[in-house]
Structures are given as structure tokens and as C-alpha cells.
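Q&A log
Question type: sequence-to-structure
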Amino acid sequence: GGRDELAKGNGILDYGSLMFIALERATTAREAIQVIADVVAEYGYASTGESLSIADPDEAWILEIIGKGKDNPGAVWVARRVPDGYISAHANQARIRQFPLDDPANSLYSPDVISFAREKGYFEGPDASFSFADAYAPLTFGGLRFCEARVWCMFHRTAPSLNISHEWAAGNVEAEPLPLWIKPDRKLSVRDVMGLMRDHFEGTPLDMTTDAGAGPYGLPYRWRPLTWKVDEVEYFNERAVSTQQTGFSFVSQSRSWLPDPLGGVLWFGVDDTASTVYFPVYCSVREVPAAFAQGNGSLTEFTWDSGFWVFNWVANYTYLRYSEMIQDVRAVQQELEGRYLTDQAEIEAAALALHERSPRLAVDYLTDYSVRLGDELHRRWRSLGEQLLVKYLDGNTKTPTGEVTHPGYPEDWYRRVAAEQGGRLQVKPLPGEEPEGH
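Response status: OK
Response body:
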């Protein structure tokens, strides 16, 4: 986002290209920041404002960047290193406010990041009080409710002891802004981070599973558009971390104490984060599972050969009776991810032994492992979808022994329907007729 007049200047590099180029040319997060700074200075920036997470085995940074408008192809940017032992989050909204001006070990920025803001009239005051986010991406209701709310929920989950209020996320600009980073109550595991990716505000004041929009089965999704009107009054749907329109997501794990071919893992999944399965793809692999390969399938044609389509098929069927069917999905999801995480130490011990003999043997071993898991996952998820179709056919539920049951709707949904349509739907026995069930 950010200021409209700065969006999409006459440069040639969008933010996706910046990420590709940085990955190709840099060996550390700090180098990646410098690569991005150099290429936008030479070739210009062609996107709206963006926040990028950039990490290596030793450091994690947040880089925020925005263009200078059509008359200037360059960009202004700032980057901050996340302190060791802390966590940060960003969600489509600039989050870096004040930053150290004389601490290059932890804070980097474009030379004109402040002077350009002064020139455009975005900022007045001493340099030390300059806020990148306030100058270049002034907050809007959407910026708080649709973006900062997701950050708040992550902080709320990981550091309940801090009692961070949700008022800022709920759109109250008078509330205290969220910090850029926090120290979690305990160290987070890979599985913990996977869980954060699956959040729908459950159990918070923004819970998406309890209002009328969730339907009878507590569906924590709302179909687009994000905002809508009734009698000229505008309303909105919550925007949680986990959404139905996710294409792919990953949890990146980097370990400095292991050789690079083993130390970097992308726990990768396609489609909705709540119902996907993250499987390990090592950074050294020479090929990827066919079902998850770039170019396998398209958005306009279904194919069983595509992991994206198989996971979408299962997820979209699950949306029909979410509170019931997601339990079946989670059982298989937890079984698979649990096995992958449990096996990780043994797999990497074997790879390390091979690496000591020949790095190429280790890479071959990890490639075979990641490809095999992806192929197995693709088959297992299609099988799960078939099982769900049989079990929940036509609104019924089959027991493990094959008995067909008719569970109906949840009690609170019947009460809601009765309160709204009771007069029309109430059973009224005719004169002389015995009441149903007499």
C-alpha cells in the first residue's frame, strides 16, 4: 500500500523481481538488502509499498520500501534487524516507525529516506522523530483492521503475558500502536509457527467462527469482496491470517550449525494454511515433487496431477460443513506433519554423514527425500478427499462401520432459524392429528 502518488513509478522492478534478484545475488540477509538498494537505485521501483522478510542462518531483517512516484524512478526504504530472541510480523502494512540513524549493525536506510519525505511535505520535525510508516503509509481503517489485526493476533498468541490490547487492531487510532517486535513467552518451534499461520482469531474479540457469517458450521472464512454495503452503510469482513485465497505458504527454517545443504528447509504447503500440510523441501534439492512443480496445471483448468488443485478440492469441500469436516482434515494433517518433524533429526543425521563423505551424496539423498514426501502427500490428500466425500455425502455422516446417520444442524443454528422464521416453519398439527412423536 502506502501513498497513492508514490505507487508504481516508471521503474522496471516490481517487488517480486527484487526478491528473485536478491536471492540470486546475495549470500546473507544484509547483502540482500544492499542488492535491493542498488538495483532500485539503478533501474527503479515499479510496485506499491511493500514489506519484505529477509533472513539468513544468523540474522532476520524487515525491509520496507516504497517508490517515489512517476517523476522519480527510485525508491526510499528502511530495514531493521530483529533482535535475537524476539519475533516480528508484518501484514500488508508498513510497520517500521522510528529507527536508529547511527546503528548500521541493526538499522539501514536509503540516504534520502527523510529528506524526500520533507521535500514532499510528509514530515516536519527533527530527524530522530521521523517515522517511515507514518510518512509513507499513513494508517487507514483498512490498514488497522485488515493488516495490523493479524500482527496483533500473532503477538497475542505468543506473548499472552504482555496483555497487548486489541484496540489498535480494532481500528482505534487513539490506542497504543503495536510494537515492531516482541519477546515471546517461550521459544517457538517450527510447529508453533505453522500454527500461527493457521489463525482465524479463534477465541479473541475478532473471532470469525461465532457470528452469523460463519453459518451453521462455524466457517471462519468470508467470500470476497472484503467490504460490502447494506442501505448505503459500509461493512467489512474480518481479514484473518488464514484465508481461502492463499496460493502457497511456507515456514523457513535456517540452522547455522549445519552445513548449508541441510541447514535450510522450506516447510512448504499450497492453498489455505489451515488445511494444508507443510512438508520439508531442503534448500539444496535439485528437483521438486511433480505435483508441486511450477507450471503444473493452471488456475482455469482442474487436474488431479496438481497439488494445488487437490488441496483446493479438499478445502472447498470442507468449507461446506467446516466444524465437522475440519476435524478429519486436521487428524491427517497432524499425523503427517508430526511424522515429518519427528523424522527430521534422523534424516538430517544420515544426510550429515553423507555430507562428510561427499556433499553431492547428501544433496542427492535430501532431494530424493523431499520429492518422495511430496509425491506421497499428493496421493494421501486425494485419498482424504475421496474419504470425506463418502463420509459426508448429501449432508449425512457415515460412521466407521458404514452406518448412515443424520446429524442435522447444530442446536444454536436451529434456535437462530426458529427465532427468525419460527412462524413460517413451526409444525402445527391439524385438528384431531396427533403431534409428531406422540
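Response note: The first strand starts at residue 50 and ends at 55.
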